[in-house]
């Protein structure tokens, strides 16, 4: 199968023979950034239709039309893992949104805790990073970015069936690998259920916040080792552990846009 270098997420339905038009931003990216011309082939994807090969039929300033040729990958289910985090400074929150996408988060939820320093986030910028991350890492879906809420509001509306891993910097908490392995032994299908990871602010949780979280029936406190990690590092570490033990970290890596098949 032909390997394509450029992949674009599109919300339009994808099917053989269909024509898809890109918005002005997508057209500008292909025309002015990548310098592509009519006849160039790119990958088009979304979570509903999978990935398809598209051929540029026409390309101009602010517009682009593509003809859909063939399906390259069928839609596949992904682990349902959210990242909940206290906002951090700009360059590092951008990094966090990007890496959450690469690590398979279905949703990221900024939350204001007592010691959160950053009081505003640019949701559109984070969503753009999440989309670009999906296009580069072979995902078929894009991480959803929520508006920021307070911790109290988050808990008030939390779905009871979604388990929440709280990364605790103090108190009684088992190491994450030990805890997740225990859960997997008891519940072999645990990774097929909804989960979330909560990372506190740079100043840590207030003691009463952490104690209130521990009392919730869906919360599992975990530790990330003896070192104090920056918030973005803690998020990457926790998500990596979850994917390795409960998620899709045991799957073979793809080859280009063609999944590896083991005979």
From TrEMBL:
Domain Ribosomal RNA small subunit methyltransferase E PUA-like span(s) in chain numbering: 23-68
Entry EC number(s): 2.1.1.193
Protein name from the UniProt record: Ribosomal RNA small subunit methyltransferase E
Subcellular location: Cytoplasm
Keyword S-adenosyl-L-methionine: yes
Example GO molecular function: rRNA (uridine-N3-)-methyltransferase activity
One example of a Gene Ontology biological process annotation: rRNA base methylation
Catalytic activity line of the entry: uridine(1498) in 16S rRNA + S-adenosyl-L-methionine = N(3)-methyluridine(1498) in 16S rRNA + S-adenosyl-L-homocysteine + H(+)
Lineage, highest ranks first: Bacteria, Pseudomonadati, Pseudomonadota, Alphaproteobacteria, Rhodospirillales
Principal localisation: cytoplasm
GO cellular component: cytoplasm
Annotated Ribosomal RNA small subunit methyltransferase E methyltransferase domain residues: 78-243
Keyword annotations of the record: Cytoplasm, Methyltransferase, rRNA processing, S-adenosyl-L-methionine, Transferase
Organism: Kiloniella litopenaei
A Pfam family the protein falls into: Methyltrans_RNA
Protein purpose: Specifically methylates the N3 position of the uracil ring of uridine 1498 (m3U1498) in 16S rRNA. Acts on the fully assembled 30S ribosomal subunit.
Family of the protein in this entry: Belongs to the RNA methyltransferase RsmE family.
């Amino acid at each position: 199968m032909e390997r394509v270098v450029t992949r674009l997420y599109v919300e339009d339905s994808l099917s053989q023979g269909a024509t898809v038009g890109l918005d002005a931003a997508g057209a500008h990216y292909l025309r002015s950034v990548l310098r592509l011309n009519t006849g160039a082939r790119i990958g088009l994807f979304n979570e509903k239709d999978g990935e398809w090969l598209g051929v540029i039929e026409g390309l101009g300033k602010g517009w682009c039309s593509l003809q859909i040729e063939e399906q390259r990958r069928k839609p596949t289910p992904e682990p349902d893992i959210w990242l909940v985090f206290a906002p951090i400074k700009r360059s590092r929150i951008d990094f966090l949104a990007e890496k959450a996408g690469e690590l398979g988060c279905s949703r990221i939820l900024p939350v204001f805790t007592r010691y959160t320093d950053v009081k505003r986030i640019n949701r559109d910028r984070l969503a753009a990073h999440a989309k670009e991350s999906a296009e580069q890492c072979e995902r078929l879906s894009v991480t959803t970015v929520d508006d920021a809420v307070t911790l109290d509001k988050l808990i008030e509306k939390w779905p009871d069936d979604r388990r929440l891993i709280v990364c605790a910097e103090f108190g009684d908490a088992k190491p994450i690998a030990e805890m997740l392995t225990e859960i997997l032994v008891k519940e072999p299908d645990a990774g097929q259920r909804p989960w979330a990871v909560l990372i506190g602010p740079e100043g840590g949780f207030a003691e009463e916040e952490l104690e209130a979280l521990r009392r919730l029936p869906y919360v599992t406190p975990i530790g990330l080792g003896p070192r104090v990690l920056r918030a973005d590092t803690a998020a990457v570490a926790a998500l990596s552990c979850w994917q390795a033990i409960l998620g899709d970290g045991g799957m073979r890596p793809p080859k280009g846009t063609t999944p590896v098949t083991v005979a």
